[in-house]
Amino acid sequence: MLQVRQDVLGERFGLQRAAFEKQPFPDLGVRKDRLKRLLALTERHEADICAAINADFGSRSTHETRLAELFVVRAGIRHALSHLKGWMRERRVATTLPFLPGKNRLVPQPLGVVGIVSPWNYPFQLAVAPVTAALAAGNRVLVKPSELTPAFSELLAGLAVEHFSPDELSVITGDAEMGKAFVSMPFDHLLFTGSTAVGRQVAIAAAANLTPVTLELGGKSPAIFDPSCDLDAATASVAYGKLLNAGQTCIAPDYLLVPKGQAGTVTAKLAAAVARLYPTLRDNPDYTAIISDRHFQRLRAMIAEARDAGAAITEINPAGEDLDTTGRKFVPTLVGNASPDLRLMREEIFGPVLPIVEYATVDEAISHVNQADRPLALYWFGNDSANRQRILRETVAGGVTVNDCMLHLVQEYQPFGGVGASGMGAYHGEWGFRTFSKEKPVFLQSRLSAGALLRPPYGKTFERLFGLLRHIT
C-alpha cells in the first residue's frame, strides 16, 4: 500500500505551495488540461475502480459504483469543462452613484492549496467531485481518502501519480493519525465529508490555522408521506433510496413519517418494494455489504435494543436466506413503534434499517423534524401543494427532493451542502468553483473622479459636496 509518512505530507504541501506561488492564476487552458486528465483518470480505469471498491466492501454492487460514483463524477467534470470559461470571467458589479464613473468588478481568484478529506461510503465520488471543483478554480489539491477503503485509496494514489504531477494533485494515504495531521495543515481551504462528530474535530483543527472549511456531514434525514401521496410510488422510491449502497449514504432517508393509521400499510408496501429490488440477498451482486464488522455490529446492536424495548421489527428477507455466516450483508429491516430514546432514533443509522413513525397532523410532522438537528436532506411525497409549501418553508434542511429520493444531489446547477449539524458550505457545479475561489472585489477609479475634492484641507467645497452626497444617497 502507498503509505505516506507524515514528513512526506509536509513535503507535498510545500511542493504545492511553491508551485502555486509560481503560477497563482492558471489560465483557462491549464485548468481545462487538468480537468481533462481527471476525466481520463475516471474513464480509463472504471473496471479497476469498481474492483477496488468491491474488495473494500466485501461486496459492492458494480452497477451502483458505475452509476452513483463514476457517472456522477464524469458528468460533473464535463459540466465544469463546458462552463469554466464563464465561471472565470470577471463579473461587472453595479457602482453606486457617488462613485461613478468608477467601476466595480468581481475577480474569482484561486485560493492556493486545498485539502480534501473523503469518506469510505462513496470513496471515488466524494474524493473526485470536490477535486473537480478545486482544480477548476485553479488550485493545487491534496486528498486524504479513508483508511476503511485501503484497496481503493492505494489505487487512487497510484492513479494520481499516473495522471498528475505531485505539485498539482497528490493523494495522501494513511490511518486516523495521518488524518489528524492532514487536517492540521495550513490549507487555504479544507473540505471534509464524514460524520458530524468527526466534523467538529476537523473544524477545531482547521481553526488553529484560520483555515476556512466546507463540512459535508449527515444526520437523520426524514422522508415524509403526506396523506395525498401515491403510496405505491412513494414506497418504491424510498425502498430504492434507502437501500442504495445498503443505506450507507449520507442523504439516505433515515426515518419515515407517515399519517396516523398507515404504518401497517406502508410497512407491507415497503416490504414488497424491497423484494422486487432484491429478490435474494446473500449472493445477489446488486445488494451491497456493510463496510466493516464494527459498523455491522453497530447496526445489530441498534436492532437488538429496539426489539428489547418492544419495537415492531420487520426483516425483509424474500428468499429466507441465512446471512449470518456469509459476510457483512445486513437484512433490510423496518422498525415500528420505536421510542424516541432508542439509538436508532437518536443517531444517524447509516445502514438498511428504516424506522416508521406515525404523525397526526402536518404541524406534528413539522415539529418532529424541527426538534432534531437540521438534516442534510428532506424528502416529501404528496400532491397537496399547500402542505408541500408548509414543509418547505417551516423546516430547514441541506436540500430537498419532492416525490423522489436523493436527486437534488446530482443537480450540477444547484449547490449541495448541509446546514447546522449536517454541515456548512456547498459545492457542485459553479457553487464548487466559487467555494474554492476568492471572489475578489476590485474598484477601478476613473480619471474623472471628484474624490480629491473630499480630502483635506476641509472647507466650503467639502461641505457642499458632502451635502450633495447625503442627498443622493
Automatic annotation (TrEMBL):
InterPro entries: Ald_DH/histidinol_DH (IPR016161), Ald_DH_C (IPR016163), Ald_DH_CS_CYS (IPR016160), Ald_DH_CS_GLU (IPR029510), Ald_DH_N (IPR016162), Aldehyde_DH_dom (IPR015590), Aldehyde_DH_NAD(P) (IPR012394). One of its GO terms (biological process) is aldehyde metabolic process. GO terms for molecular function: aldehyde dehydrogenase (NAD+) activity. Residues 29-440 form the Aldehyde dehydrogenase domain. Keywords: NAD, Oxidoreductase. One of its GO terms (cellular component) is cytoplasm. Belongs to the aldehyde dehydrogenase family. This is Aldehyde dehydrogenase. It comes from Rhizobium loti (Mesorhizobium loti).
